[in-house]
């Protein structure tokens, strides 16, 4: 799902990745040229290499990548070695890949551990069994150790695009080693590409290649090779399968059709890849990492490869709910980032890069710290200091780290549109929510009232941009004047990758306040309705159509732009009106129409687990509109029975007997036999387990936002 893309329309911008959950390296096939962001496109017909990748998204490109390619022709370069393949002779599962390289008659298989991989190459009868390793010409190096049957390499690949977003330190190099089970009869290198040859092969003869990588040292790369043990392919396959089943099996669904099943588990798989672990295990077994910003080797966990602007919304809440044990390590990694860099990332890949806006690390951190059992109090206190720092500063040379425009925001209560600060309204709305997260964590930690009150007050700053004349969020100049040429359909400008129709809802923490500002619950409901009724008109960005615009235009959902993140919680806002059935109706429509179990299956960039996490939550019948609140807005389940197993063994069964596409409305909800009142569920109560039972209807149940039944 998501690998059939063009630069005009993204259908996910994903690639099939073989790895362990949140492993260090991902493995895929490379159909595009070295350096191309869209390196795996479903429509492509040739493979240029089996690629180790760390790429979160094509527009951000890869780092420290390299590839290998077994061939039987006298070829070397990426064009010459390209081989025809067919998706019918290609298998991707989370723990393994298998592909037939037609021009060479070679079958290649690979299974991965966290930091290593085992490849099994089956050659035809040939006098010329070659094996090529390409460390990329940009900072790539290769060398041979014939006596040990090893190829060593270094990849420091950094694309031009990535250089512009933030430089990876010179010392942050991927040191990799390949160890073969037989001698080389010939070997030669050309630049960063090396080719070895083996003795002639009989038909069906296999070569086993152990592979490992380290960001620390060659010695550590050899240590990482130990993850493969004796190199038994079938045993490693079994272990990889088990590791994935442990993660994916935490949510077990029953009922639904084959498409729903495929969509659900594909989405759940996508939520378990990024961020990637950047730590390795040293000689004494303890976690160590090379810091991707400072280049120094330090102790402890570390993760990279996620944009909080996307993933604070649904991915991290999902981790906190179902995988708190996993997020505990990630949050420790954030603490280490703060200690080592003096900042929390907003976008990391692998280090802190300049990308998107907001200060949404506040949401990620507060959500983790406020979820029981994720972090210790000492860690929460330390991270809270990091939040205070990031809310009142901006990193030198990186407008995406900390808060660009913080002085103006603190002084005026909004980022003004005439202060040469980009995306002023979008920043203001996100900062106000981030302030609410800081306030909530501060209060929980017992911080002084005069300190926390500042953030509570600032959390109301969204009001400063709510223009009652138009009923929407609107940019404002320093003197307090609203944008006189305001166009709610205008993308960019005061907003980023969206328009006011999409951003007005970014008041995650005070939807009741937003309803009041709009003129009450009914006015909120009518404005929500409008999103689906309006034509998909787009303006802005100087007349340029960015792919996110086109993704909205082609979906037939009016102004509902699910292909990008800002509006993704909006469907659930009917829970604050007297028409929560519209949430149930629309969430099902979105699950049906905006997700397909096909290569063009997403309706825009998947974005490292976020758009997938939306589906997982929606299938569960709930959504974390305000992540750090510990509350979920009710929807309606996709499956008849969904069993969530928490790490402590407790189980939550979400049941919806008889649910179908037609019978999509919730009549009544009960938790452990007690009728549930209201449209919101508490995480901590759900974590106790038991049964959350939905009684389903084929027509809307008229229920008020207070939860009372009208009929
Ligand atoms: Ca996006």
Q: What's the helix and strand layout?
A:
Elements: E1 26-30, E2 46-47, E3 49-53, E4 66-71, E5 83-84, E6 90-93, E7 96-101, E8 106-112, E9 116-122, E10 130-134, E11 141-145, E12 150-155, H1 160-165, E13 174-180, E14 186-190, E15 193-197, E16 206-214, H2 218-225, H3 233-248, E17 251-254, H4 258-270, E18 276-277, E19 279-281, E20 287-290, E21 297-299, E22 303-304, E23 306-307, H5 308-311, H6 315-322, H7 324-341, E24 347-348, H8 361-369, H9 377-391, E25 394-395, E26 398-402, H10 406-412, H11 424-444, H12 449-458, E27 466-467, E28 472-473, E29 490-491, H13 500-503, H14 511-518, H15 521-533, E30 539-540, H16 547-555, H17 581-593, H18 610-620, E31 622-623, E32 631-634, E33 641-645, E34 651-655, E35 665-671, E36 674-675, E37 680-682, H19 683-686, E38 690-697
Parallel strand pairs: 29-30, 34-38
Antiparallel strand pairs: 1-3, 2-5, 3-4, 4-10, 6-7, 7-8, 8-9, 9-16, 10-15, 11-12, 12-13, 13-16, 14-15, 17-33, 18-22, 19-20, 20-21, 23-24, 25-26, 27-28, 31-32, 32-37, 33-34, 35-36, 35-38
The chain binds calcium ion.
């Amino acid at each position: 799902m998501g690998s059939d893309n063009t630069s005009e329309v993204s259908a996910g911008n994903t690639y099939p990745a073989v790895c362990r959950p949140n492993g260090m390296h991902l493995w895929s096939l490379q159909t595009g040229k070295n350096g191309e962001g869209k390196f795996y496109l479903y429509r492509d017909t040739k493979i240029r290499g089996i690629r180790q990748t760390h790429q979160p998204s094509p527009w951000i490109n890869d780092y420290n990548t390299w590839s290998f390619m077994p061939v039987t022709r006298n070829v070397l370069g990426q064009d010459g070695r390209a081989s025809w393949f067919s998706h019918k002779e290609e298998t991707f599962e989370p723990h393994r890949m298998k592909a037939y390289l037609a021009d060479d008659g070679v079958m290649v298989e690979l299974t991965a551990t966290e930091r290593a991989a085992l490849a099994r190459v089956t050659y035809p009868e040939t006098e010329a069994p070659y094996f090529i390793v390409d460390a990329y010409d940009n900072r790539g190096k290769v060398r041979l150790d014939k006596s040990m049957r090893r190829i060593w390499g270094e990849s420091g690949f950094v694309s031009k695009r990535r250089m512009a977003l933030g430089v990876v330190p010179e010392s942050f190099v991927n040191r990799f080693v390949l160890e073969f089970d037989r001698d080389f009869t010939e070997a030669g290198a050309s630049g960063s590409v090396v080719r070895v040859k083996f003795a002639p092969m009989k038909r069906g003869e296999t070569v086993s290649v152990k592979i490992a990588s380290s960001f620390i040292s060659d010695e550590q790369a050899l240590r990482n090779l130990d993850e493969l043990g004796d190199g038994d392919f079938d045993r490693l396959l079994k272990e990889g399968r088990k590791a994935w089943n442990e993660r994916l099996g935490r949510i077990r669904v029953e009922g639904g059709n084959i498409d729903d099943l495929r969509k659900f588990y594909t989405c759940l798989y996508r939520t378990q890849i990024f961020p990637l672990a950047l730590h390795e295990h040293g000689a004494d077994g303890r976690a160590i990492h090379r810091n991707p910003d400072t280049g120094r080797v330090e102790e402890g966990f570390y993760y990279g490869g996620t944009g909080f602007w996307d993933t604070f919304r649904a991915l991290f809440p999902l981790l906190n709910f179902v995988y708190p044990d996993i997020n505990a390590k990630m949050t420790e990694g954030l603490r280490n980032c703060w200690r080592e860099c003096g900042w929390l990332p907003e976008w990391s890949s692998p280090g802190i890069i300049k990308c998107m806006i907001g200060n949404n690390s506040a949401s990620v951190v507060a959500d983790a710290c406020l979820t029981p059992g994720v972090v210790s109090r000492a860690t929460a206190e330390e991270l809270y200091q990091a939040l205070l720092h990031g809310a009142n500063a901006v990193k030198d040379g990186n407008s995406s780290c900390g808060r660009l425009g913080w002085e103006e925001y603190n002084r005026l209560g909004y980022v003004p549109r005439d202060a040469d600060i980009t995306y002023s309204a979008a920043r203001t709305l996100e900062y106000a929510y981030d302030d609410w997260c800081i306030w909530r964590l501060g209060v929980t930690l017992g911080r002084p009232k005069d300190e926390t009150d500042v953030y509570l007050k600032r959390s109301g700053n969204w009001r400063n941009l709510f223009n009652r004349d138009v009923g929407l969020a609107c940019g404002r100049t320093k003197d307090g004047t609203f944008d006189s040429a305001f166009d709610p359909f205008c993308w960019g400008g005061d907003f980023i990758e969206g328009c006011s129709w999409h951003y007005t809802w970014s008041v995650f923490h005070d939807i009741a306040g937003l309803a009041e500002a709009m003129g009450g619950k009914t006015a909120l409901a009518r404005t929500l309705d409008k999103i689906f009724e309006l034509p998909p008109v787009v303006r802005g960005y100087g007349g340029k159509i960015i792919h996110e615009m086109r993704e909205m235009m082609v979906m037939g959902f009016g102004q509902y732009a699910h292909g990008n993140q800002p509006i993704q919680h909006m469907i659930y806002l009917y829970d604050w009106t007297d028409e929560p059935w519209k949430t149930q109706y629309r969430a099902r429509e979105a699950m049906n129409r905006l997700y397909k179990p096909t290569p063009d299956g997403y309706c825009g960039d998947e974005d490292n687990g976020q758009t997938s996490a939306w589906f997982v939550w929606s299938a569960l019948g709930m959504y974390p509109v305000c992540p750090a609140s510990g509350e979920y807005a009710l929807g309606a389940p996709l499956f008849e029975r969904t069993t969530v197993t928490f790490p402590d063994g407790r189980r939550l069964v979400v049941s919806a007997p008889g649910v179908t596409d037609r019978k999509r409305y919730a009549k009544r909800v009960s938790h452990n036999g007690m009728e549930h009142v209201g449209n919101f569920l508490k995480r901590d109560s759900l974590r106790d387990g038991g049964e959350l039972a939905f009684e389903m209807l084929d027509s809307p149940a008229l229920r008020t936002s207070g939860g009372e039944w009208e009929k």
